[in-house]
Amino acid sequence: GINRSTVNKAYWELKSEGFIDAQMGSGTIVASQFSRTAENTDAYIPPMPWPQIMTQPYQLSGNTIIKTALEAIGEPDTISFAGGFAGDDVIPVDLVKSLMPKCLSTYGSQLLHPTPLLGLSALRSALCKQGTLKGIQAGIQQCMITSGAQQAISYLTSLFISPGDMIFTAAPSYVGAIEIFKAHGAKVVGIPVDQFGMDTDILENYLIRYRPKLIYLNPNFQNPTGTYLPLERRKKLLDLAYLYQIPVIEDDPYSEIYFDRIDVPLLKAMDRHQYVIYIGTFSKMLFMGGRLGWIFGAEEVIQRLGFMKQVTDLHANTLHQYLVLEALQSGMLPKHLAQFRAQVKAKQDVMVEALNAYHIDGMSFNIPEGGFYLWLELPSRLNAHSFFEACKTLKVAVMPGDPFFPQATAEHTYVRINYTYPAISDIHEGVRRIMKAIEMATVT
Ligand code: PMP
Q: How many Å is the Cα radius of gyration of the chain?
């Protein structure tokens, strides 16, 4: 036999000569060429195996649906119904023009300084005051400012979800949230949506069998279906959350975008036990480029999120926080919203009119009473792949519905159509192109 230390010594010699590569935990391999040493700087340097060293969620090639939608914006001649934001004809440039000088003269250099981790106290107070008017009981310690709702969803997922944990969402549900959940290794289970939103009877049946860490939904003009959860379902949802002790995330970008006043309160306003974590955003009410949102939640949750803010980007953009503060304090936000709702409704009307004018058998859609989207079911004889190819050729962009279902189960082809981005004068032509694409992709 050979002495163990002789073998070890031989290995060390081979390694120091660069004939082998040894790595703790992954064994020893023959070096592909001479390894790089202090003396041998011309040695072959292998390419960095980036995908292999990334953490698991990011090794997976993600869905590119959001990337594609953002890129379609500004493509010449393309009429885009794929986005989720206001277009040039309704975006509040004049409002910003009037707020900006006021901000500069009132706050001066403060606009350029950092803010606390949780955001400007004055803005948080103003948001709490707004919340109170809607029946939400949240003090400043239960409120934080985020860089958009997207960051809020991300943070909450990091805070609660370990790989393998389960989340219940509506099916369909906001694709951007589903992707965050999946990137964190969550099992995302979809609760079907009907014309009133998430079906709470089915939710109950699922809760009898499974115990999710979170329930996530947009009860108010849901993305993508535009549904508004009725009072009875809200009560039932909360009762179930209390019974099974599950936190509920109410992601709410659209409740202020109503066309007729709605009397059903926000879920967070009905919750007296701090089970609901509320996410608000200025992306839809004002503009998306500002990346400003907020969270109302239990103080323990907000404190942890403050630390997350510290380890990611310290705080939300200061200038934009002051801009929004000014919009709230000057009373200009409600004025803007009144006008904006009317503009969005006018665009929705044109959209609906065009869809009816070009109606195709087997196609159906709802007419939401608020929000940014129509959810269109396409005829069943349609070849979805050809349809999206035809859209590209005809220079019209729509959001494919499939990725909005957490589990690929949809039997029909759906598309989400946004009516706030395209110019009102382009909507008819855009719908004509969508209908042409349907015809081109229909199997006869
Ligand atoms: N949640 C929902 C339901 C949304 O529709 C959106 C915007 N598409 C977001 C979150 C992200 O919003 P923000 O721009 O505030 O990050």
A: 26
Calpha distance 415→412 (Å, rounded): 10
Residue from 150, 294, 324, 399 to probe ligand 1 pocket by mutation (most atoms less than 8 Å from CB): 150
Residue 196, class by beta-carbon neighbours within 10 Å (0-12 exposed, 13-18 middle, 19+ buried)? middle
Kindly report, residue by residue over 139-182, the tens digit of the pLDDT: 999 999 999 999 999 999 999 999 999 999 999 999 999 999 99
CB 363 within 8 A of CB 378: yes
Q: Could you please report the per-residue DSSP string of 42-65?
A: TS--PPP-HHHHS-HHHHS----H
Q: Where does the pLDDT of residue 266 fall: very low under 50, low under 70, confident under 90, or very high at 90 and above? A: very high
Q: Write down the residue that tokens 């009037």 correspond to.
A: 98
Please report which confidence band the pLDDT of residue 410 belongs to, taking 50, 70 and 90 as the band edges: low
Amino acid making up residue 91: I
Contact call for residues 36 and 370 (beta carbons, < 8 A):
no
Give residue 382's region: left, alpha or beta (phi > 0; psi -120 to 50): beta
The pTM assigned to this predicted structure is 0.89
Residue nearest to atom 12 of ligand 1 (CA): 149
Query: Do 398 and 417 meet the contact criterion of CB atoms below 8 Å apart?
Result: yes
Omega before 224 within 30 of 0, i.e. cis: yes
Q: How far is the CA of 150 from the centre of ligand 1 (A)?
A: 6
